[in-house]
């Protein structure tokens, strides 16, 4: 905010400086030292200092007095009311028109996922069960709490969170079950079969299906769907019905990740393998890393730790048809430890989904702890925030697009020789010619049992050519080298649009699992 | 919790009973759950060399950065701008504000640092990992007058989440944005029960614990309801506490038997419906639907459990063996050897349990 007055003052002072002489020199030199910062940062004289707040507006929702607003779950009812679940078990309804709160249900154990069925009925994923909560007598307060499924183990370990549910087009529901943590033990009594072979390890799975994503078919049966998850908070679908799960950096996860989840596949955290049909009855984490590496499906997107995300949360599709700005049809992921969201740019390469991630809404006034995301029918985004003893914030924020299109990277696609970057606005050609405006490096994170990973084999990658498309929106970059199995981190320089807007975000990381196969081969 | 506070107090007391001249001080600071250091602050004389070990008891990585007086927030904010250098620098900016720092300490690991504090002032120690620095910090008082240090709850240099601990939990914040109405229900981690339990407060002074995994009443108590402060704190590691005296604790396992008295049936929890705020539990026993509603005795300690059964072919037994703290009185049927045999065709019955 301060940059605008500084520029105005600077040019003003410099004009005065030309008129005035020695008498004021001492005073002015102090002033101009301060003002001289502005021209360096904004070489274009007439360039407006646009910021993200010119394009997006963040409203912090006033929470009820006395509520500990650790927002576990959040969804939108058909009538537009926000239904939010909180750590102390309250499920509350917020009417955005009247800005009032009302209690709907009580006593839920960590309602980490909510799916609105109607204006009087919701599905809630709480620790012990997936529960159908309904107001049956029309007094606005729930009176029926029926079990949809509890057919999974519960050891009493605090880290056995449960996420979801999400519903596919066929009416199946999916839930995700967190592993337990060796930060605590288990209860003397557990629900489900206890297998002590599942106890070793940082994050463990001593009762059935911890570390799995489960599918609930309309007949009420819960089926193991995919394994290998550590802390899958949470799951979501893209526009084509592909399912994604975010998972958190830790043991076996060198950095946080987003998986494209498909039935029967295993995604790398070994604890869950104990419950895989036909798998050897051993402590899975004690198997050779090479073997474990060979049976896993790698992530679609790696979120470089501390650069992009430390603790990614719910993937959500921007299904607003453009009401939320220029990124419609793409996905967003929440992030706990940074005051922003993460934007995804996915594509299918060689039959597999991979792609890029970039920070979004940096500097917008968004808080940390962005745990749950839901788009309303007016195209605005509701965000539930929590900390839950970790880094984060509490409360609910509401983000609206103000109608103007910022300059930002809209898409990043792999080419046989580099990347094609498509922007939301046509770029000014001058900056595109300067190859130093495209700084690439590449690295990878190791798959191993230790917590997290450093970046391995960090190398700068030279851009040898940049070509701007006739419409000015796409820059095709040729790289000196493209290698599968690496994250390509791109730092964009001070690109400008022909509309004299400046780039909102400079960092983007592309997870290059597969190269484009030469069609002639 | 008590142990942690004890460590804090010992360190503070040690600081207050300073020797006449400065010397080396050795201490261990633990990073604990809930973005906290277990030691909220400590006091040393000017000229002290501090040998500090950061021991990470939490389930995420932390560091410990000692900063000059009045510079903690500056260091924290600068640490957020380190970009791709952050990991390499252990999230510590290279500024003169930093007196000393550990590396990033992974869960279960530790790191030792040693630093000399010569000038008087209120220094800070803070974790500079992203998001941590605004809540996870403590104070080092370097002073010749330890008596001038404010009490912990009034100390502006101590993290808010440590002052809460010092002041105790009760009475500061309301539990909810409303006053709890009884009967009240919480799904929570109850002690001495399965992990999928339900605490029901019938009145502010009468309560029971029902296990939704095993579909049965586990225990009942009078004198209060539950205290969830510890369970609600941080990541929820600790169970909820019972307030009051437990007068009934089930010893016999699942009470309903179909066909034969000695075979345990298969049960599934189907949820509950609220009737005047009382939960009526629904579950199936060998596929037969059962409803159970529990109300307090009008006077005295005890419960009235009303059961409704689906259609059953053959005899139904209800186990009510003595020795678990109550006397059983069934509304129908005959008691024999700790079992009530219900008349064939019984669809509803009550079991009255009175504390012995």
TrEMBL record, chain B:
<feature type="region of interest" description="Disordered">
    <location>
        <begin position="153"/>
        <end position="174"/>
    </location>
</feature>
<protein>
    <recommendedName>
        <fullName>Blue (type 1) copper domain-containing protein</fullName>
    </recommendedName>
</protein>
<dbReference type="InterPro" id="IPR028871">
    <property type="entry name" value="BlueCu_1_BS"/>
</dbReference>
<keyword id="KW-0479">Metal-binding</keyword>
<keyword id="KW-0732">Signal</keyword>
<feature type="domain" description="Blue (type 1) copper">
    <location>
        <begin position="31"/>
        <end position="142"/>
    </location>
</feature>
<feature type="signal peptide">
    <location>
        <begin position="1"/>
        <end position="22"/>
    </location>
</feature>
<dbReference type="InterPro" id="IPR008972">
    <property type="entry name" value="Cupredoxin"/>
</dbReference>
<keyword id="KW-0813">Transport</keyword>
<dbReference type="GO" id="GO:0009055">
    <property type="term" value="F:electron transfer activity"/>
</dbReference>
<dbReference type="InterPro" id="IPR050845">
    <property type="entry name" value="Cu-binding_ET"/>
</dbReference>
<dbReference type="Pfam" id="PF00127">
    <property type="entry name" value="Copper-bind"/>
</dbReference>
<keyword id="KW-0186">Copper</keyword>
<dbReference type="InterPro" id="IPR000923">
    <property type="entry name" value="BlueCu_1"/>
</dbReference>
<keyword id="KW-0249">Electron transport</keyword>
<dbReference type="GO" id="GO:0005507">
    <property type="term" value="F:copper ion binding"/>
</dbReference>
């Amino acid at each position: 905010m301060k940059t605008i007055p500084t520029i105005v003052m600077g040019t003003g002072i410099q004009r005065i400086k030309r008129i005035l002489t020695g008498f004021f020199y001492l005073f002015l030199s102090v002033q101009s030292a301060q003002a001289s910062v502005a021209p360096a940062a904004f070489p274009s004289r007439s360039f407006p200092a646009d910021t993200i707040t010119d394009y997006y507006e963040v409203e912090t929702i006033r929470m009820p007095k006395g509520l500990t607003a650790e927002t576990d779950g959040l969804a939108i009812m058909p009538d537009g009311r926000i239904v939010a679940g909180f750590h102390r078990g309250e499920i509350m309804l917020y009417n955005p028109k009247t800005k009032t709160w009302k209690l709907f249900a009580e006593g839920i154990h960590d309602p980490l996922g909510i799916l609105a069925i109607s204006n009087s009925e919701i599905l809630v994923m709480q620790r012990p069960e997936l529960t159908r909560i309904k107001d049956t007598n029309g007094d606005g307060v729930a009176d029926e709490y029926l079990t949809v499924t509890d057919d999974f183990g519960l050891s009493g370990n605090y880290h056995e969170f449960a996420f979801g549910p999400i519903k596919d087009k066929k009416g199946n529901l999916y839930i995700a079950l967190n592993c337990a943590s060796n930060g605590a033990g288990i209860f003397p009594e557990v629900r489900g079969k206890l297998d002590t072979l599942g106890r070793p390890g940082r994050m463990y799975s001593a009762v059935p299906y911890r570390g799995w994503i489960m599918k609930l078919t309309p007949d009420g049966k819960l089926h193991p769907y995919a394994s290998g998850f550590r802390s899958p908070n949470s799951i979501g679908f893209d526009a084509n019905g592909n399912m994604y799960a975010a998972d958190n950096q830790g043991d076996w996860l060198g950095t946080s990740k987003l998986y494209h989840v498909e039935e029967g596949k295993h995604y790398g955290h070994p604890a869950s393998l104990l419950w895989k049909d036909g798998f050897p009855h051993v402590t899975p984490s004690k198997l050779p890393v090479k073997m474990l590496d060979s049976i896993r499906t790698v992530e679609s997107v790696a979120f470089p730790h501390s650069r992009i995300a430390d603790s990614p949360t719910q993937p959500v599709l921007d299904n607003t048809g453009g009401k939320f700005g220029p990124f419609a049809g793409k996905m967003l992921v929440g992030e706990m430890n940074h005051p922003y969201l993460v934007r995804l740019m996915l594509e299918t390469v060689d039959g597999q989904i991979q792609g890029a991630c970039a920070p979004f809404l940096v500097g917008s006034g968004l808080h940390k702890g962005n745990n749950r995301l839901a788009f309303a029918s007016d195209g605005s985004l509701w965000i539930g925030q929590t900390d839950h003893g970790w880094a984060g914030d509490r409360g609910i924020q509401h983000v609206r697009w103000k109608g103007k299109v910022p300059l930002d990277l809209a898409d990043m696609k792999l080419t046989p020789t580099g990347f094609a970057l498509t922007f939301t606005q046509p770029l000014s050609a001058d900056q595109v010619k300067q190859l130093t405006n495209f700084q690439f490096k590449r690295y990878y994170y190791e798959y191993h049992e230790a917590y997290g990973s450093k970046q391995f084999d960090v190398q700068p990658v030279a851009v040898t050519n940049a070509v701007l498309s006739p419409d000015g929106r796409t820059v095709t970059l040729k790289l000196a080298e493209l290698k599968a199995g690496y994250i390509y981190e791109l730092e964009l320089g001070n690109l400008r649009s022909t509309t004299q807007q400046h780039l909102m975000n400079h960092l983007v990381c592309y997870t290059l699992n597969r190269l484009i196969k030469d069609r002639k081969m | 919790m008590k142990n942690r506070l004890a460590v804090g107090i010992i360190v503070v007391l040690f600081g207050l009973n300073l020797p006449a001249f400065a010397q080396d001080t050795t201490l261990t600071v633990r990073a604990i759950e809930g973005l906290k250091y277990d030691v909220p602050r400590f006091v040393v004389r000017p000229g002290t060399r501090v040998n500090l070990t950061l021991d990470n008891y939490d389930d995420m990585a932390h560091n410990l950065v000692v900063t000059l007086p009045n510079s903690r927030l500056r260091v924290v904010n600068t640490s957020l701008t380190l970009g791709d250098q952050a990991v390499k620098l252990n999230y510590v900016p290279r500024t003169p504000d930093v007196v000393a720092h550990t590396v990033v300490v992974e869960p279960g690991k530790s790191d030792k640092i040693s630093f000399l504090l010569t000038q008087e002032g209120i220094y800070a120690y803070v974790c500079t990992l992203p998001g941590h620095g605004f809540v996870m910090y403590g104070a080092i008082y370097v002073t010749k007058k330890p008596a001038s240090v404010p009490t912990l709850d009034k100390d502006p240099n101590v993290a808010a989440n440590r002052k809460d601990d010092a002041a105790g939990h009760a009475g500061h914040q309301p539990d909810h944005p409303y006053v709890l109405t009884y009967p009240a229900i919480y799904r929570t981690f109850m002690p001495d029960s399965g992990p999928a339990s339900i605490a029901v407060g019938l009145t502010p002074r009468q309560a029971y614990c029902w296990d939704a995994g095993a579909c049965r009443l586990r225990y009942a108590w009078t004198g209060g309801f539950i205290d969830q402060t510890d369970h609600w704190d941080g990541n929820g590691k600790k169970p909820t506490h019972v307030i009051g005296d437990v007068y009934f604790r089930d010893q016999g396992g699942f009470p309903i038997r179909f066909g034969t008295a000695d075979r345990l049936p298969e049960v599934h929890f189907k949820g509950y419906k609220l009737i005047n705020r009382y939960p009526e539990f629904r579950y199936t026993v060998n596929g037969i639907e059962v409803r159970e509603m529990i109300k307090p005795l009008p006077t005295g300690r005890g419960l009235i459990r009303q059961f409704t059964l689906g259609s059953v072919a053959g005899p139904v037994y209800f186990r009510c063996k003595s020795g678990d703290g109550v006397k059983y009185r069934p509304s129908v049927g005959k008691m024999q050897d700790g079992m009530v045999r219900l008349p064939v065709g019984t669809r509803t019955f009550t079991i009255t349990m009175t504390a012995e």
